Amino acid sequence: xxxxxxxxxxxxxxxxxxxxxxxxxxxxxxxxxxxxxxxxxxxxxxxxxxxxxxxxxxxxxxxxxxxxxxxxxxxxxxxxxxxxxxxxxxxxxxxxxxxxxxxxxxxxxxxxxxxxxxxxxxxxxxxxxxxxxxxxxxxxxxxxxxxxxxxxxxxxx
Length: 157
Fold this sequence. Notes:
Shape: elongated
Number of strands: 4
Number of helices: 5
Order of helices and strands: EEHHEEHHH
Oligomer: single chain
Strand content: 15-25%
Structural class: alpha+beta
């Protein structure tokens, strides 16, 4: 969950922006309802009841990836308080998502192949681990040239 804050010059308020990442398969209506409920709870609790000046707005889907969807939300806050409100909102959303069983990302292996890979399945041995393998021998360092010997046939006239 990312965020930014903007202070609009001359308007006397700041904007707390939070990007909420959820798993691709999550029900977005359920996610938005939970965000709204959590944000309303935050805005009613002290000290945030004096820092959040307008209801949190769910701006909608910001981006979509293979394993997640990002929903952007914003809240109008007291000047200079946007970072504080953003952090508190992220913390409460994380707790609410944990309690509701909402995933932040889908399993990478399940998205890519549809099959989950477990650690119990052994990997096949590498050809490089067998010293008699041609690949092993090809990966050996090139030998250094041998120094010249005192063999008279190798000397130039």
